[in-house]
# Entry
Amino acid sequence: MLRIGIVGGTGYTGAELLRLLAQHPQAELVAITSRKETGMPVAEMFSSLRGRVELAFSDPAAAPLAQCDVVFFATPHGVAMAQARELLAAGVRVIDLAADFRLRDTAEFERWYKLPHACPDVLAQAVYGLPEVNREAIRTARVIGLPGCYPTSVQLGWLPVLDPAAVAAAGGDIVERDSLIADCKSGVSGAGRKAEVAALFAEAADNFKAYSVAGHRHQPEIRQGLEAIAGKPVGVVFTPHLVPMVRGIFSTLYARLTPAGRALDLQALYERRFAAEPFVDVMPPGSMPETRSVRASNLARIAVHRAEGSDLLRVLVVEDNLVKGASGQAVQVMNLMFGLPETTGLTQLPVLP
Amino acid sequence: MLRIGIVGGTGYTGAELLRLLAQHPQAELVAITSRKETGMPVAEMFSSLRGRVELAFSDPAAAPLAQCDVVFFATPHGVAMAQARELLAAGVRVIDLAADFRLRDTAEFERWYKLPHACPDVLAQAVYGLPEVNREAIRTARVIGLPGCYPTSVQLGWLPVLDPAAVAAAGGDIVERDSLIADCKSGVSGAGRKAEVAALFAEAADNFKAYSVAGHRHQPEIRQGLEAIAGKPVGVVFTPHLVPMVRGIFSTLYARLTPAGRALDLQALYERRFAAEPFVDVMPPGSMPETRSVRASNLARIAVHRAEGSDLLRVLVVEDNLVKGASGQAVQVMNLMFGLPETTGLTQLPVLP
Amino acid sequence: MLRIGIVGGTGYTGAELLRLLAQHPQAELVAITSRKETGMPVAEMFSSLRGRVELAFSDPAAAPLAQCDVVFFATPHGVAMAQARELLAAGVRVIDLAADFRLRDTAEFERWYKLPHACPDVLAQAVYGLPEVNREAIRTARVIGLPGCYPTSVQLGWLPVLDPAAVAAAGGDIVERDSLIADCKSGVSGAGRKAEVAALFAEAADNFKAYSVAGHRHQPEIRQGLEAIAGKPVGVVFTPHLVPMVRGIFSTLYARLTPAGRALDLQALYERRFAAEPFVDVMPPGSMPETRSVRASNLARIAVHRAEGSDLLRVLVVEDNLVKGASGQAVQVMNLMFGLPETTGLTQLPVLP
Amino acid sequence: MLRIGIVGGTGYTGAELLRLLAQHPQAELVAITSRKETGMPVAEMFSSLRGRVELAFSDPAAAPLAQCDVVFFATPHGVAMAQARELLAAGVRVIDLAADFRLRDTAEFERWYKLPHACPDVLAQAVYGLPEVNREAIRTARVIGLPGCYPTSVQLGWLPVLDPAAVAAAGGDIVERDSLIADCKSGVSGAGRKAEVAALFAEAADNFKAYSVAGHRHQPEIRQGLEAIAGKPVGVVFTPHLVPMVRGIFSTLYARLTPAGRALDLQALYERRFAAEPFVDVMPPGSMPETRSVRASNLARIAVHRAEGSDLLRVLVVEDNLVKGASGQAVQVMNLMFGLPETTGLTQLPVLP
# Structure
């Protein structure tokens, strides 16, 4: 049994970690911390856990985190980097669901998160926790920067056409790398469980809007991830939108095919690339994925469309932002780090309708 | 033209007042205050008002409220009572959409709102602003305590059977006055435009719950209102629920019919009572009202059902909590106070779907 | 492994059976029928099942149902009674999720469902599949009439106060049996996956209404169930409402306490009655259940409130209408019928948010 | 007073026409037809109209349409073209909200709508009813093909950069005309009030998906409209998505700027182009339009964004699909055709929240 700690369990990614780990056959929840809610039973805040999670929130200072095998940070940005060094020193692995260990470039981090980076040395050894790209590095990682919800869907969607092996096989770039467009739509749980007017039901319901159009924190992460995949510069424009639903991300990706790309069987390319992936489903030609088809599961589903009479490739990707986009991916990464079968505890079927 | 001031225009009842008054042919918006947002154009906060409302929020201290004909308080409880005396002294009429002038009994007010009442003398002259009950008193009132959203629907629903004239005509009580049940359901805008976790989209969407079951502030107001109508003690149990919709209240009212009540044509009783009311629609027998049938309008619709094989009267009432339950009723009251036709500015049709 | 057939798998209860049975360690899906969709892979209709359910819909006439251990009917009313006799003769157990085997009285059935009953003899041996009431009879039943979604919540809510043992211990009736009120609210999936205008998104969203107020098919089932529990006549008024959410039932139950009832510790009574029940959670005093706290799980949660200053008992019950209100209860019943641990395949945690 | 007929008033665009025309000071509703609902009072189907619209649905054969000044067709495709010739012969103007008179090319019409075109001669004289483009032609038109909901938003969004005058002033194309992308999102009311499984609440709620990705009927209309504006060939890829909300369209438009385009002040270009338009609001730089800011109003709002570090122009457009995208635009067109002030009956403020 893995001994597990969660720092900051009062948000949605924390609650989702609890849901998943309470059903994980190899996980033992040892501590969950919250400064504000110290002493409150977890199941009092999240009544869905009544009878199944007996833990109470504990004071971060007093929690036996150093005795855990792994500690998840489901906290605001900046918390993990303040505590990681000490935990690592105690032999604890760290999985940060926030942004502290995502961006390789501390200047970029500081620009977007308005915080100096507290431990560039730890960052230097951190692995970006996207198993479909970094599986082997994750197995031996001691600290993980887990991808953001949007970046997960966007990177999975473009992975097959940016993959250097596929590019080499095609005899050159498959898509025009400098002009990618990611038009992404997220459910409101992506905003977190924070008291903010913009996320109120009466603001977000029966409404649709774009936000952070001028610049969203996931933009540099998406570019960094795509460039790491491609091994070359990539230009991408990212437009996030807010959908009046609780869970789900839908990414509509546009890329212009090069002559080399137009000659390819793109459906086959995608199917091959993800054939061995347990959590990526390439749907048949002509499919229309929908977010509810992955609701509450760790799956991403992808459909590949070439626009009629055009050289435009359209890739449609769906995921549950709280699962494959956050806590499910965190558990997948944990399984890899500790040598468990990758799908352990992650086989629940999506909930539809 | 009536010169109008609004204190606290950043919430939903304030925004709805702006929507209604900007379309009111006799209203001139003179000032709208907000301590926090001083200087911000109103249309920047509520983009629906762009091009139609040029006003900016002004500092409460500097706003020319004393030069208005009427000032609406769309504020948290406690603000109106702090400013009412001064405004009244300047000859300004006051319409409070909060609770400061609803409860006649200051001890009851203090128990539920945890505030000492600042001006019992003003309260003594305040009129409860429910036109269907108090129309004549409203015409000459200088200060109005506007009914709460739930109390409006509940009082309208039981008015015909508690009305002393109807009771006298029936030869005694029509329903058992001591055991009324109001099972009420409200859209989330009723919680206001406050940053609170419980009103987040991801908390309230795709969910249904009861709240404040042990005691809600509208309970004493409902009882007071029903007793004022009946001229006798009334016992009522009130259960509020939260519906994942933006606007609307649906009240399901249960009352046990007395032998006198069972002998009556209740449909006819309701139709007669509201025949002259411009904003109350008694639907035909067997009707099922729905909240969207009054969305964005000042109407209440009522259906009267007698449960088959039972002596139970069921009255179904719908209203838009922000209009007939708040800002629309406020405008209706204003029209009465200033001798305008009661429906002025309130004739927009409901928005369906 | 149990060999399982599903007749009529294209609706929501069918899809939910598939979701639950595909994760059930002792279940082998042998056939799922649909006249209209013969040949279509199930996962093409419900993409949530892609990669997990390989079955295609088969022609009802050709499906090997007679070789199953148990056949579920997730069909419109009237289908199960046409096929049950033949299946039973072949030694197959039958669980009907529709109404064919719910009402004991065929005249009552015919009045509400406008169909003559095709097999009163089979009905005579059918067991009403509510484990909390009929567990022992279910173990040996050959044919089950599974309770409706509303009746499940209402019967669970009043079981402790109508239970003859509790009544005897209290020295007489705990509540006034002739004047019960069930004010119930359901998500729209309760209307099924049928093309009907009233269930369209643009009709049901951002709206709340009552329906079938003059008489709903679950009314006679509720009364029959409560009378079977109490062993005495019961009078109940039932008002169903439609909530703009996908899943969930919330029942607000009102009953007037007798003097004997007022003397009881009702919280303790409820806790005792359900102490051994794996799927009924009596929440602590003062709790407010919410439908999402049981979303996608087989749990019902109950809170017991006594209205202040009144003799009214209010019981709040939540369930997922597709799980405890239908397909989950069907699996629970199957587990009992075949001697499996009752919770097998039903231990997934609710999905919140 | 204009005498008005509506053919096919039982859908959402029909209901919205009724809402708008019942409040229009120059409109007299003479007849509204429905084959299925002949005799039913309109207000029985749409209870929002109770007390304000006294008309009943009449038999299409018997309705006095030939005595109207104008007849609106709020019908499925194919109905208007069967009746237009006769009405025009009687001197009645025709406004078709369906697609019969949108596409200039009958072969294109027949390809997408699977119907032969019944009256190419009438089509030849029809005017495309987009006032911002065709105002003068509309004034004298006898028959109008009203734009689709998506095409209205897309054409308004690109009008300023495709306008030949602007292109001439810029010294050449402003955007690359052959590679436009329209990523559009619509509320579910756009699917109409038809009983279809895909539009059920339990299918569409808490879900997001793309649809008709391989080809949508609005695609040829969009291309035709943009080419008519530009006077040159245009290439556009259109991806429609379904949003779980009732009303609203949000179009995210992407276009690559030419060197000439990069040199322009695009914000100023948009503001100038729409300065005199009563129903198009160009928002300030950096704005994020939201669909609710135009809910139930005839407005479109537009924000112009240039992606940082990229030559991509992003234009965000919102409209209410039932108003500016259908019935409101129809009334606007009617006002123009009959010499009324263009905004008559269309000045209601949007409903927010």
Q: What stands out?
A: Chain A touches chain D through 49 residues (CB under 8 Å).
